[in-house]
From TrEMBL, chain B:
CDD domains: TM_PBP2 (cd06261). Pfam families: BPD_transp_1. It comes from Desertifilum tharense IPPAS B-1220. Coiled coil: none annotated. It comes from the Bacteria. Keywords: Cell membrane, Membrane, Phosphate transport, Transmembrane, Transmembrane helix, Transport. Belongs to the binding-protein-dependent transport system permease family. CysTW subfamily. This is Phosphate transport system permease protein. GO terms for cellular component: plasma membrane. It is a multi-pass membrane protein. PROSITE patterns: ABC_TM1. The chain crosses the membrane at residues 26-50, 82-109, 129-150, 162-185, 206-225, 280-301. One of its GO terms (molecular function) is phosphate transmembrane transporter activity.
Amino acid sequence: MMHPAPESESPYQKIVDRNQLWNRLFAIAGLLSILVGIITLLALVGQLVIQGWPRLSPAFFLSFPGRRPEEAGILSAWVGSSLIMFVTAIAAIPIGIASGIYLEEYARKNWLADLIEINVTNLAGVPSIVYGLLALGLFVYKLNLGESILTAGLTLALLILPVIIVTTRESLRAIPNSLREAAYALGASKWQMIWDHILPYATGSILTGAIIGLARAIGETAPLITIGALTFIAFLPDSPFKSEFPYLSWNWLQAPFTVMPIQMFNWVSRPDPEFQLNAAAAGVVLIGMTLIMNGIAIYLRYRLRQGIKW
Amino acid sequence: MDRLKLELPRKRYISSRTAREIRERLIELVLLLAATSSIATMIAIIFTLVSESVAFFQEVSILEFLTSTQWTPLFADAHYGILPLVSGTLVTTAVALAVAIPLGTMAAIYLSEFVTPQIREIIKPGLELLAGIPTVVYGYFAFLFVTPLLQKILPNLPGFNMLSAGLVMGIMILPFISSISEDAMRAVPVGLREGSYAMGATKWQTAWRVVYPAAISGIFSAYILGISRAVGETMIVAIAAGLEPKLTWNPTESAATITAYIVQVSLGDLPHGSLEYQTIFAAGLTLVLLTLGFNIAGHFLSKRYREIY
């Protein structure tokens, strides 16, 4: 390449041309790889919507699953999913944020911190069905919580805990140290510094992580099947509110449950194509829920990245 | 400030300081307890899997478990060889990786080296949406869309087959591989690229011969994560691959994976403490050891090839 500028007929021009050709070919191949993903996504959503749209009526949301496909609905499934998400959020978010704060702000460089850190990484790689086996052995049979909404919520909470811990740590790490030093300089204690100054700045991105975690939990099927989710439920759990004191009831926590993905799985595995249309409709609702949650998270992340300049 | 402090009774000042100290210690303790929950989870997982598996291996010899080629724990003539489930798992994983690794790597190189940051900001979240889709929906898609499509090309393809399950699983793990590989490649210092361009290399040569090798350790971690996801994936294979445990390496056949077996058995009514109940824990332990093995191998590989610059 150290020779004088080649003429157009020289062997160098041929090499340059060939390299340029490869360059272009590769750019096309890269674009195609991405398109494969995007097109599959569109095909998947398109197929679901085309099949499922005619079934999506108010009655579909307000009826129980039944023997007749055209009358069956997802009432018990979406109520179950909502209640379980509530339990999951209550259990996972405080513990996840607390662990994240400990690991990022308090932990000294010692074996315990290392152990917890390695553990969080490993837990994130454990297949979700193994959490189901854990819950079956521990929650259902050892702790006698039964095959209930409580068990399901706690199982999913364990599953998304690593996601929340990792995002909490990342959010805290993104906050510059000068802020911490400023709080200390004014006489704040460590906790005052975290609670009054660091957490408010980190809330947005921690929330993003929590939403992503919950979006993942809402689509999880396997761990709930292992703990005995029923595929056919024609009743609702007790209402959490009652008319007399103390106005709140916790009976619903012990109720058997089904959730959206399990309802869909049940309908997919029926040989009757009519039921598979119901599966498509349930899929549209399910995908709608997860895409909306992921969309909110992506939007929040985008907004946050633009909002604060340290 | 000084005067204010002097006016405070000395005793109260000290006790409020102690109170504050105690409160701080308490808070730290509570946070530490929360942080140890992850260790408790890991211990509980290991304990549950091992204790039920020990009960299982008191009935079934480990030799039969590892060498028998039949897995029929629910039949009258029960055999407990894990190999058919392992072969199903490995075949679906291999098909998934054959899709996800080339496509994911190409997509990552394209996103990191060929497009402007603005376009990347649009495409990357778009690809990541693929990771957000519930796996039961992918199962539906594999069973009712991809399999009929494949049957037009391969007329003898059975309704349940590992090929369509594996292909769809590959699309599912594509964003994990492309996102993490892209992050690893973008972390490569710009100086390396500039050096390569200064030598007259094209974009493609720089990306493939300089940036990719420099980021290889991060990219290997992405591949390993992809393998873990594929091995542990449940609903796609439970819906689309069939639930018939047989020892085969042919992706166009139906088969059961470890995870699909666990789901299948859990759907029935499992009497607690029975041998059938224990089989799912033995299968689960095998699954964990399998992913653990891949993770450890990957850890050493990425360490071995780590570039230091």
